[in-house]
Amino acid sequence: MKTAVVILNWNGKSLLKQFLPSVIKYSQKAEIYVIDNASTDDSVDFLKEHFPEVKLVQLDKNYGYAGGYNRGLKQIDADIYALVNSDVEVTQNWLLPVVKRFENEPDTVVIQPKIKDYKNKKMFEYAGAAGGFLDFFGYPYCDGRIMFEVEEDQGQYEISKDIFWASGACFFIRKDTFDKHKGFDESFFAHQEEIDLCWRIKHTGKRIKYEPASVVYHLGGASLNAQNPFKTYLNFRNNLITSLKNLPFFYIFPVTFSRLVLDGLAGIVFLLQGKPKHTWAVVKAHFGFYKRIPVTWRQRPDKIIKKYYNRFSIFIK
């Protein structure tokens, strides 16, 4: 299967310099692309000079994660897209197990590798770990990570399994699946668009898998770190939009009302932590969500799966 490893870049020269060599070294059987979101540093000149083997797709402005990939991938021909964050180090043999699984399992359309912490390689990494799930309230969590607590990799997640969502940090998807679902929701800009896409894919009965034989290391926080209130805003708003778009009808009111209370408590916690900008970000996220309700409602698919959550609460493991 023709595979394209695709990295989205925006002002990430230092990350490309640090992490792109591992991608080139261990991706010999794939074509490597960088989609540039109109960087204002010298990323593009750096790529042309030092990595001429990498194919470059240049966009006219910064479209974020969702829009950047949607536009860039239209210019890339492949059977499988491997969407890789610019702060990810890949390892030897990271592609082969994933490609084999796609070849042997026609109903598997999205795959996530094992994602570990670049800063502490014994640990799983927050953004994806050993595969993503949702709790009853629509909050995402992972095997290997609950809330802000990550686990050490002690071989406890060495079996491939079905998951609900795959992390955008390293996200394998069939081209025909990406095209069928019209890619990511560009209104998200960044954060949780991969969860929304995976949920939409789940409605069609296709499978999303975790493949532990493929291992990558993620630095994390390279674009927006956890201290940035805009990240808080996007995470809360986009998660609410995702839930309204995809929840079974009879869960919409109880989940949305519960989220109003739980997100309010999160805002209070931010305030007690001396982070009033994050509290305000939660408030703005809810108003941003309410404003989008008519548009989001029209995006609800005709067929919606009833079973979406793996546990009733993220507070119960």
Summarize the structure.
The protein is an alpha/beta fold. It has helices at residues 13-25, 43-50, 64-73, 96-104, 175-180, 193-202, 229-246, 249-272, 276-291, 293-298, and strands spanning 3-9, 31-36, 55-58, 80-84, 88-90, 108-117, 132-134, 140-142, 145-146, 149-150, 161-162, 170-174, 207-218.
Number of strand segments = 13
Shape: globular
| Structural class determined from secondary elements | alpha/beta
The number of helical segments is 10
State which percent range the strand residues make up.
15-25%
Kindly report how far apart the N and C termini lie: 38 Å
Low-confidence stretches: none
What's the pLDDT, averaged over the residues?
A: 94
Helix content: 25-40%
What profile does the largest beta sheet have? 9 strands, mixed
Radius of gyration: 19 Å
User: What is the N-to-C succession of helices and strands?
Assistant: EHEHEHEEHEEEEEEEHHEHHHH
Give a quick set of tags describing it.
single chain, 317 residues, alpha/beta, 9-stranded mixed β-sheet, two-stranded antiparallel sheet, 10 helices, 13 strands, 20% strand
Structural write-up:
The protein is α/β, with parallel strands linked by helices and about 325 residues long. It has helices spanning about 15-25, 45-50, 65-75, 95-105, 175-180, 195-200, 230-245, 250-270, 275-290, 295-300, and strands at about 5-10, 30-35, 55-60, 80-85, 90, 110-115, 130-135, 140, 145, 150, 160, 170-175, 205-220. The protein has a domain at about 230-300.
